[in-house]
Model the fold of this input.
Amino acid sequence: MGFMDDAKETAEAVGEKIKRGFEDTTDRIGDKIDEHKADADVKKAEAERDSVKTRNDIKEELRDS
Done:
């Protein structure tokens, strides 16, 4: 019976290690997704800032004319 108990404990340990590895991988993927979303938000904000600046510059030129 000792052999069966050892095999069961080993299988449980391996299963737990696989589970933790899967959870770690899932977390890493989630972190990368969040990072890419943040980069996209920054690029969008910069583009909007540039657009507003260009629009304001055009308005200012029209006022001066």
Observations:
- The chain has a mean pLDDT of 93.
